[in-house]
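Batch manifest, entry 17 of 40.
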Amino acid sequence: MALNDPVTARIITFLGEIGIPVVIEALDEDTLLPAMTVRYGALVVDPNRLAWPGDLLHEAGHIAVTDPAVRASLSEVPSDPAEEMAAIAWSYAAAVEIGIDPRIVFHDEGYRGGGGYLAEVFADGGAPGVPLLQWFGMTIGKRDANKQGVTPFPHMLRWVR
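Output type: structure tokens
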């Protein structure tokens, strides 16, 4: 997938605007997601191997929800189920924010056949992972937003923890 693909370009531009560095380089090593890895708090992308541009948002979500005290040293996505759910919710909000179909993020290849289901859950108002984003001060859930008169998730108060 070339970097001039409109969706990929939109995602990379958005990530730069919110302060998540994107490094473009060839990756020879095996990585958790094909064509990308996290290195020192930056998202490293091999554009010649990128098959699913939505994966950029998911991996960036991991960077975004990482404790700011360790973000700059982050070179591996932790296998923390709570942070995984927060990254999933973050990537949905990011897709909505930049105007791409969330199914680009939640493709069935990357979610063991459940990507469409996740997209539907979020579209129907379900919000797995949102309580953690709320705890991080990144968004507000519907119930609290109604009390405070502010826009709830998927609106984000801030994009990086």
